[in-house]
Amino acid sequence: MAITRRALMKRGAMALVGTAAIPSFLTRAVMAQATTAMPNHKKLVVIFQRGAADGLNIVIPHAEPSYFQMRPTIAIPQGQLIELDGFFGLHPAMASLKPLWDQKHLAIIHAVGSPDMTRSHFDAQDFMESGTPGFKATEDGWLNRALQAEDETHRVRETPFRAVALSAQMPRTLQGRVPAIALNNLRDFQLRGGGSGADSANASFEAIYAQTVDTALRGTGQETFEAVRMLKATDPNRYMPAPGANYPRGAFGDSMKQIAQLLKANLGVEAAFADIGGWDHHQNEGSVNGQLAERLREFSQSLSAFWTDMGTQAEDVVVVTMSEFGRTARENGTRGTDHGHANVMFVMGGPVQGGRVYGRWPGLAPEQLNEGRDLTVTTDFRQVLGETAYKQVGARDMNLIFPNANMGSQRFLNILRG
To answer: What is the rounded distance in angstroms from the CA atom of residue 289 to the CA atom of residue 44?
Structure first.
């Protein structure tokens, strides 16, 4: 497929393409003139597991006797988990990720979470996406600020596809001064305005840009429309993943496949975001099989397929996952788990120093639990995100990304090389 990248090497960016109204689009187009992208090929993909995933049944501390005592019906039996290091094991539904662990391209951080003690899904997700736990007035997301921090030290080529979210609305993570794109899927990628259809919307926008006397804005607009046409020209319906990249059916698998397509199309994507819901298992969570197992199967197979699909380009990609908080150490009376505190994060990619579980394990003895019920947080989630921003995005101003957090590089866990 013959695709020119001329427009993508110039100025221009778009925000909320597919969902934006005209005034918002014009405002962001003006701001787009300062947008830049990394001078290398590094890319960061952020995944949010919405609903508070049960980290204790995802990465199982099977050497802890308390684990089995507190979860008599939902614990993963010793003989059925995937052994990792003699202390921790992986849920059997995540078998597709074991090869990446063995190849040291997958790292795990356990007992990680937010210093804020809220058990509200809404507040906890907002705090993690904003990167300011306990402070609700933050207007932008940590990943957008990471791109802003990168702009302070790098001046490189520009692209309207610098930051992309595969979601119906712009996620909190990417909201902010750096323009970004949010779209449900590539097949529906278009500009929507006040007309009767996509063609009338595109025509009205092009007319507005053609009439403007601001030559810089006019250039931004024309390049934006060319970028839209170029992306449409890739014909998402005909995209063929690499051999062996078997994405599972479902929204998350589709999102990861489309992120791979965007990255492989060389459109200048530097940061991408996707989420996967369905982790709030208060009842009938299941053990080896059940609700959690089904979620984990789609989750892990999607990540594994993405890794395979990226081929040699995977060496420049880092994927980081998170969930707003974990679950209670003890199962409840309905064979589920309630809102907890510490959780587990995964970091996958070429630069990852994987094959190990990072963080200090606090223990599951009753006296070691947070408030007598939860796994205790020993690693601030911002230590993990901060390292990915520093080493993968190239951001240096940690105080801009995580204000008042004292998140210097000395607090990184050294999960990534470099």
So the answer is: 32
Tokens of 363: 């223990």
Is 377 a residue whose pLDDT tops 90?
Answer: yes
Name the residue ranges covered by the structural domains of the chain. Answer: 7-411
Name the more confident of 163 and 35. 163
**Distances, alpha carbon 71 to alpha carbons 144, 169, 330, in Å:** 40, 38, 6
Domain at 7-411: CATH architecture: 3-Layer(aba) Sandwich (3.40)
Total-model pTM: 0.85
Q: How distant, in Å, are the alpha carbons of 53, 134, 340, 363, 364 from that of 372?
A: 19, 22, 11, 12, 10
Residue 377 or 4, more confident = 377
Percent of the chain at pLDDT > 90 equals 72
CB neighbour burial string for 129-153, b if at least 16 within 10 angstroms, e if fewer: bbbbbeeeebebbbbbbbbbbbbee
Task: Show the tokens assigned to 28.
Answer: 């962001």
**146 neighbors 394 (Cβ within 8 angstroms):** no
Asked whether residue 196 carries a pLDDT value surpassing 50, the answer given is no
Whether 214 has a pLDDT exceeding 60, the answer reads: no
**Of 369, 320, 318, residue with least CA distance to 342:** 369
How many of the other CB atoms lie within 10 Å of CB of 104?
12
Give every CB contact of residue 405 below 8 A, 6+ residues apart in sequence: 131, 380, 382, 398, 399
Rounded to the nearest 10°, the torsion over CA 322, 350, 307, 190 is 70
Between 4-18, 36-50, 81-95, 160-174, the lowest mean confidence (pLDDT) is in 4-18
Token pair listed for 218: 């006019």
Distance CA 370, CA 342 (A): 9
* Residue 180 clears pLDDT 50, i.e. is over it: yes
